[in-house]
Amino acid sequence: MKTYILLIILGFLLLGYQQNITAQNQAQETQYNLQKTKENIVLDGELNETVWQISEVATNFQMNIPYDDRPAAMESEVRMTYDEKNFYFAIICFDGQDGYVVQSLRRDWDWPLNENFSIYLDPYNDFTNGFSFGITPYGVQREGTIDEGTNVNEDWDNKWYSQVKRYDDKWVAEIAIPFKSIRYSNENKVWNMQFFRNHLKRNERSTWIAVPQQYTPSALTFSGQIKWPENPPPAGTNISFIPYALGNYDKNFVDPQQEKGLNANAGFDAKIGLSPSLNLDLTVNPDFSQVEVDRQVINLSRFEVQFPERRQFFLENADLFSKFGFPQSRAFFSRRIGITTDTLGRSEQVPIIGGARMSGKLNEKLRIGVLNMLTDRREDLQLPYQNYSVLALQQNIFKRSNVAFVFANKENLGVEKGKDISEYNPQVARREIQGTDTVTNYKLYNRVLGAEFNLFTEDTRWAGDFYYQRSFDDWNQNGTYNHGAFIRYQRRNYSLRWVHTAIGDGFNAEMGFVPRVGYNQGSFSPSYIFYPENEKIINHSISFDLSYTSNSDFSRITDRSFSLSHNFNFTNTSSASINLSRNYEYMFFDFSPIAPFNDSLLLRGTDYEWNVIQANYISDRRPLFNYDVSTSYGGFYNGMRFNLNGNIGYRFQPYGSFSIRYDFNSIQLAEGFGSANFYLLGPRLDLTMTDAIFFTGFAQYNNRFDNVNYNLRFQWRFAPASDIFLVYTENFAPNGPVDFIPGDNTKNRALVLKLTYWLNL
User: Fold this and answer.
1) Please, which pLDDT band fits residue 426 given cuts at 50, 70 and 90?
2) What is the overall mean pLDDT for the chain?
């Protein structure tokens, strides 16, 4: 009898669990049927139009953080419709508390640090590529492109329209996305879509389609189906003309011969829709003076550091060009175009004469990317005219996987055959001797051919990447290979990850990012995630990483590391971690880790092994004052190193914030090798007078190069995607250890006034 009763109870429990599961909106099972409207929809956040009263409602949002087994505590609703020109959204975010947590009124805000509602749109229905549009309770926009089914690149910029109205118990957003602003196939009557709300002040994240906590909610595999009653409207004539004009003053106090003085410039970009899913970008005499300066780093490693691409021309469908290989073995890196380094290792612009880029979908399964650009001569850097060309193809196979091919070609124009261009640019030759970069020397051409298979299973458990590349040039034929393999298996409580890379001694990708050649590298990384029933902890995980690097013939281990980490995510939005590691490095070239403060070298052929302990903490992001801090202590080659870095910030929302980024390294090497203290300070002021007028003041002090850099930028977005910029930059040597006031040691300064206007033809 007791057994019978237990079985009945168990049956009711299972039934209740099954009802909970079926009550959730399930991926690819939940559908929304669109209706076309003939009304003129006014974006005012009031939802007075009749179509909003009769449209279906996407609701029943499911919590993702801090728990993923229950409905959202505060519901959200989405209604959709369309006409011949726009895709419309009406969004209601119910809210039972006063006030909102946002950084400022600046566009392209950081997703985790702002309350917002985001749309993830897959018009190709391939679960791989798409678009993201987000809005805060103050009506501030953010857009991006999606690649590899989950990654959001928020640097992409385009035209769309929105309006938000705040009420006592909710905020309401109306959005219009022009069909001209996105790429899609108008033969496809089913689109994938996901909605994601970040209710930051409650630390609650919720989605329309339920997403297990171990996965990223932007993953397109967790999406519902949007069904069109007819083929989506064609985008029609889709031509955008984006001219710019600028005046600038440039003064060089160190080398007056390089002074440009007062001058003017003009150029344009153009976007031409060859089809609803294929776009042609053109640029003539582009200028990127308004792009924010790179955030400096204290690089204590032996190899080059990669900085992100922020120039708008290169961003749409950027993954199609830039994702070949692994992060340390890319066949193409767009920052190689128009940016070089001088003999002191400083970034220098190389004028781009013009270029063209075609990218998008040829059909539902095949993507194509073609790029060709020509850069001007830089006689002061002894660089010739250079032509850069890339062809990329990506064919979807199975449900979410793809195979891809790339061909990258760099031609040096006007260079005599067989003549070493180190005569033109001595810096390149020196870098070859040090072995710090694959850009060894320029001759007639450099080419890379590669193929890749990207695996993404439908159940999201397996992911993998397998590639092979080979370089070609007119002086090197041996060891020109580059190949790698990556595989990951992920379940709710654990994941396993394995990576292997092999790069030959002669591999040379002058258009890519390959800071090291002539090695085999592998790593194995298991991790286990715990989801405790605890009011203060969302989850915590333990992970282990074992990695090694050998030379190309496996005859010597050159690098090895073992690390053990424990990570915590708390319900108050804070997080913490601790890491223990043991590292080994073999010097295959002479290296000074504390240059220029001491020129004593760790000699080629010596090796070192040391232990390090590291701890990190990120504070609760909701208070006006917040911070993050990371510290480490342990060995460093033949000595010791202490590091403290992080960020301290204060918001005076919604009008801006002030923060200070800091990095301090105290290094004590063995007797005779010297010691050094490296400082990097970066105070930053963000002011957003309105959602269209912004000011950023950014300073960076780096004692390693005895330099203070100012970048002051005023921006007025007077029309959608159209701006006026006023930018002031200055570099000077400080008078004391930390002196942010310019003195008599100014190196250079520049003032730029720039106007851009986005015109749809």
Assistant:
1) very low
2) 88
Closest CA to 287 of 750, 730, 622: 750
DSSP structural state of residue 313? G
> How much is the pTM?
0.85
3-state secondary structure of 92: strand
Structure tokens, 1: 């009898």
* Per-residue pLDDT reduced to its tens digit, 504-560: 999 999 999 999 999 999 999 999 999 998 889 999 999 999 999 999 999 999 999
The bridge status of strand 347-349 relative to strand 352-361 is unpaired
DSSP string, 520-531: EEEEEEEEEEE-
Q: Cα angle at 375 between 371 and 377, to 5 degrees?
A: 165
Helix H or strand E segment including 321: helix 318-322
Q: How far apart are CA 269 and CA 246, in angstroms?
A: 14
Contact 242, 271 (CB under 8 A): yes
Shortest CA distance to 746 belongs to which of 758, 760, 734, 761?
734
- Which residues are registered as beta bridge partners of 631? 615, 644
Token digits of residue 740: 């942010």
Could you give the CA distance from residue 314 to residue 321 in angstroms, rounded to a whole number? 9
Q: Given this model, what pLDDT does residue 743 score? A: 65
What is the DSSP secondary structure assignment for residue 177, as one 8-state letter?
Answer: E
Residue 266 pLDDT greater than 70, yes or no: yes
Describe the chain by its helix, strand, coil percentages, rounded to 5: 10, 50, 40
Question: Which residues, at least 6 apart from 391, have a Cβ–Cβ distance to it below 8 Å?
Answer: 369, 370, 405, 406, 407
User: What is the radius of gyration, based on Cα positions, of the chain?
Assistant: 27
Picking from 601, 503, 512, the residue whose alpha carbon sits closest to that of residue 549 is 503
